[in-house]
């Protein structure tokens, strides 16, 4: 009942490897955190969290090199926080004065099938993430409400913001796969197992004062990356 299947596709994607410090180099396959971001762009509520179960690679993995204009610097967190409190003016950044070009190795012509489900957060989990439990409505604990709203929004093509493949300039198209529909077939359906190495799973937001990355050993098995549960021993912090 909590499960959803979403087909996503686009022209380009970049799921940046964190070990690359300067140039952008994408993973071979979409990361679970990127898949979660797409689902949250369609339907997000503080009472739930999306858990990715599997990522199907439908089209062949193909890379291309591009150059992108980026800001050379960024606004500091302390300055942004002070500006939000009204205690300090936020110094502006102008791309015309702070532009630099960077090379990037990105994926092209991507298509995936995301299998996911959601979990309703407990009061303790919501407090740990900084949410006000008092604002939660009684029906926020109802699984049917969330799954129905997600499916309606995905079916109609609605989203809170444009889903993207890693970067804002790489938009993602999406389509809900209904329960009775056949799943799209991966181009790697009969090619066995291929190790993808250590992959970024997501960021651990359970402690807002100590946010850490999580990693897991990813394998492409017959075109599918099976994603462990975030509380699994397979996920390393």
The general outline is globular
- How would a crystallographer describe the biggest sheet? 9 strands, mixed
The run of helices and strands is: EEHEEHEHHEEEEEE
β-strand amount: 35-45%
Radius of gyration: 19 Å
Number of helices: 4
As for the number of domains, it is 1
Instruction: Pick out the low-confidence regions.
Output: none
Mean of all residue-level pLDDT scores: 90
Count of extended strands: 11
Report the top-level CATH class: Alpha Beta
Q: Give the assembly state of these chains.
A: single chain
Features:
237 residues, nine-stranded mixed sheet, alpha+beta, 4 helices, 11 strands, two-stranded antiparallel sheet, globular, Alpha-Beta Plaits
Descriptive account of the structure:
With 237 residues, this protein is α+β, with helices and mostly antiparallel strands. The protein has one domain (3-66, 106-226): Alpha-Beta Plaits, CATH 3.30.70. Helices cover 17% and strands 38% of the residues. It has 4 helices and 11 strands; from the N terminus they run ββαββαβααββββββ. Strands 1, 2, 3, 4, 5, 8, 9, 10 and 11 form a 9-stranded mixed sheet that branches. A two-stranded antiparallel ribbon has the order 6-7. Strand 6 (164-165) and strand 7 form a beta hairpin. The chain is globular and about 55 Å long.
